[in-house]
Structures are given as C-alpha cells and as structure tokens.
C-alpha cells in the first residue's frame, strides 16, 4: 500500500477521505497546512494530498523530494499555490481536481450577492437584539438590472443561468465566448465597459499572471458608486488595499468576498483569541457593507464528494502508471 499524507484536511472532510481510501492506501490526515515549516512531516510519504491553502513553492517541493515524495494530488481545481515547473524539474508528479459541481460556487456567489444587497447580516444581527427597525436595510430589485460576469466557464455559466432567471441584463467578459451564455442573451464586451455598466459584478476567472489584480484601483474607479462586487474565485483577483480605499471613499453599495489574497494561514483556522495582524483584512471587516466568508463556496456534500472521488482516482492513476486530464505534471516512473 502507498503511504499518503493529506494536509489542510477539514473535520467534515476527514471521514469522507478516510472512507474513500480505506483498504487502498495508508492515509494520515493533518489539519495543519503544508509550508516550509511543516514540509518535513511528509518525510517517508510517497504521495502528498494538498489543499488550496497549502504553499508548495520551490523550497517546499525540494523538501518533499528529499523526503521521498513522488506525487502531489491537489484537492482543488486551482493550483496557483504549486510551483509546477519546479515539480517537473524534481520529477514530482502533480494532479488536480479539474472538475467538481459548478453549482456549489455559483449558488454561493448568489447567496453573497443577495445577502449584501438585502443587508441580511445586519438585519439578523438587529433582530437578535430585538431591534426590528428597517432603517438602513433598503436593497434593490435585481430584476432588470445589469450583471457583469468575468469568466464564463462552468461556474460562470451556472451563475449566468441564475442571473437570467432573475431577469437581469447579462454582460460577459472572457477570452472565449460561451455559446450557452450567448443563448441566454449575454453580450460579451470589453472589460472596462463591463466594469462601467454593471450593477453587480461577479468574478469567475482563474488566478494567472494576466488576471492578478484584475480588479485594481483603475477598475474600481470605473465601477458605479452603488455597484456590488462578488468574488468566490481567488483572492488575488482583487487588489485588496485598493478596495479598502474605494470603500473608504464611500463607493460601492456592497462587497461579498469568499476569498482573500492573503488568506493562507488565516482562513479555515480559529483566530478568535488572537490579534488580527493583517491590517487590510481587519479594515475590510469594519465596513458594514462588506461580507466576508472563509473560502466555503465549494463546501457542499456534492462538491466535496466529487473532489474526494477525483482525488482517489488521481492516486489510483499514479499507482497504475496512468495519466489523465487531471495530470499537470506526469510523475517520474515508480521504482
């Protein structure tokens, strides 16, 4: 049996992962994240299963290689946290989960949008204190307004279907136009026009060099003063300090963030008894029109089940010497 160590395993995820691999491999599940300090704990494990907030840079990968790791199976679609070229140089294979339920993320993006628009968090906070006033809770109908969708892959398309159901005008931006979104009535436009015309903007593009800080000070300046911004993709798509300054200036009606550029070492952890040393995140938390969740958009039974099933298949493919569409770096031949 292969020896596997999994990092960043959430309590709700652990029994599913253990059950899926029972009798197939020897699995060790750790809640701690993989980084320079924790990488030595992988010594002796042929396979490492990583989470989206693990840091697999060149230094970590060299430690893994020295400890005998030959395969990394990432339990997410995104892999911007892995130095793929260094893994290739070291002969370490890398696979990811190329697909899981797009509805999990799309539906959560709308949950954020609706909660921000209708001031649901503020409203429930008041009613818990038996304050039943409506002052400051007025939202807007979404029907007839314009939604801008940046990225119209599987998740962006699922988000667009819901927007179409609301009766919204659809604007899209992507390198490749999606025929299904076109059929729903989406008009593909230049990015600056989308930022300028949309009442609600949702991000569904991957984090690559060309999309890093896609929403920067210039883009934020183009947006309507009462626009709503939603990000359930990757934190690095938004220049967070620029967002803080935009909010300080009284711009934007609301912001919903499920991701944050510096979330590693914060999200998924209990920091309630500690001083928050990230000044930008702490400042974002002070705005009443900002709603932040801890990278939970994917976290449904359906999506997590698919992620684990695909991770198990990636492990089995490695052990059998096979590759698939999930393979980012083919592993070196097993001895």
Automatic annotation (TrEMBL):
InterPro entries in the record: D-isomer_2_OHA_DH_cat_dom, D-isomer_DH_CS, D-isomer_DH_CS1, D-isomer_DH_NAD-bd, D-LDH-like, NAD(P)-bd_dom_sf
Q: Which residues form the D-isomer specific 2-hydroxyacid dehydrogenase catalytic domain?
A: 10-327
Q: Which Pfam families match?
A: 2-Hacid_dh, 2-Hacid_dh_C
Q: Which GO terms describe its molecular function?
A: D-lactate dehydrogenase (NAD+) activity; NAD binding
Q: Which PROSITE patterns match?
A: D_2_HYDROXYACID_DH_1 (PS00065), D_2_HYDROXYACID_DH_3 (PS00671)
Q: Which top-level group of life is the source organism from?
A: Bacteria
Keywords for this entry?
NAD, Oxidoreductase
Task: Enumerate the spans annotated as D-isomer specific 2-hydroxyacid dehydrogenase NAD-binding domain.
Answer: 111-297
- What family does the database annotate? Belongs to the D-isomer specific 2-hydroxyacid dehydrogenase family.
Supply the name of the protein.
2-hydroxyacid dehydrogenase
From which source organism is this entry? Streptomyces ficellus
